[in-house]
Amino acid sequence: MCTSTLRYTREPVGYVDLHSHVLFGLDDGAPDRSTSLAMLDALAALGVTEQCVTPHQKAHQYLPAWDRVEATYAELDGLRRPLHPTLRLGAENMWDDVFYTRAAEDTVPTYRGTPAFLVEIPPSLMPPGMVDRMFQFQRAGKLPVLAHPERYHALWEDDGLAASLRRVCALVVDLPALAGFHGRRESKMARHLVESGLASAVATDAHQVGDVQQAAQGLAWIDKKLGHAATVRLFDHAPRAILAGCLPD
Ligand SMILES: [Fe+2]
């Protein structure tokens, strides 16, 4: 499953953003085509060369039909400009009844062409047996990627749980949270996850153009605190490894 040789590479290749709501008209992200294109302008300026577009798949709130997701992806891919990042279709799967059904049927939307899938859980409710469940996905040849771990209350006071999760899934911290834009407690946790090495990677989770500017501040925080090599590891090499099906070291 894991086919990456990038872990042996030290050179920067180009930023890969695993989490965004760039696709228009599907969820609480970009409302229209012009916003999608403005977001891609901003992401290109940030240095992103591959942009994963991950609309919500969340029961009773944002659950656009998959053929509509595919059509929107194809349309934006046709509209994007040469300097924009390439696009890869994925989804942000909420851990809910829809997800459970899809997991049983092996139809959870992954990052296209990869065994990795992005999943989020409700902030205040860590599902019981989460570590074991993630391990079962791994055994089945999948790579779970947990979105914004800094939001999950159960991890705030339990590094042991975070470390256990880190062994069976990728933990992908939101860059705006590193810069303090998602609340004080979330910022503290985001910084702790990155500084302690528990974070596998970072992503923008951009819903609008302003989020990309906030993400830039998150990258600046990593540069200043841990050095640019850490930024390259977390926003270039690690996401590439994840898309190759590998859990980053
Ligand atoms: Fe998201």
Per-chain topology:
Blueprint: E1 15-17, H1 33-46, E2 48-53, E3 56-57, H2 66-79, E4 86-89, E5 92-94, H3 97-105, E6 116-120, H4 130-139, E7 143-147, H5 153-156, H6 159-166, E8 170-174, H7 175-178, H8 184-196, E9 201-203, H9 209-226, H10 228-243
Parallel strand pairs: 1-2, 2-4, 3-5, 5-6, 6-7, 7-8, 8-9
Bound molecules: fe (ii) ion.
Please describe what this structure looks like.
By secondary structure, this protein is an alpha/beta fold. It has a single domain, classed as TIM Barrel (Alpha-Beta Barrel). It has 10 helices and 9 strands. The strands form 2 sheets. A 6-stranded parallel sheet has the order 3-5-6-7-8-9. The chain has a 3-stranded parallel sheet with strand order 1-2-4. Helix 1 packs parallel to helix 9 and helix 9 packs across helix 10. The longest helix has 18 residues. The model has no long low-confidence stretch (mean pLDDT 95). Fe (ii) ion binds next to loops.
Please summarize what this structure is.
The protein has helices spanning 33-46, 66-79, 97-105, 130-139, 153-156, 159-166, 175-178, 184-196, 209-226, 228-243; strands spanning 15-17, 48-53, 56-57, 86-89, 92-94, 116-120, 143-147, 170-174, 201-203. It is α/β, with parallel strands linked by helices and 249 residues long.
Give me the number of helical elements.
Answer: 10
> Mean of residue pLDDT?
95
Q: Can you tell me the CATH architecture? A: Alpha-Beta Barrel
Poorly predicted runs = none
Bound ligands, each once: fe (ii) ion
CATH classification, class level: Alpha Beta
What is the CATH H-level superfamily?
Metal-dependent hydrolases
Instruction: Name the strands of the widest sheet in spatial order.
Output: 3-5-6-7-8-9
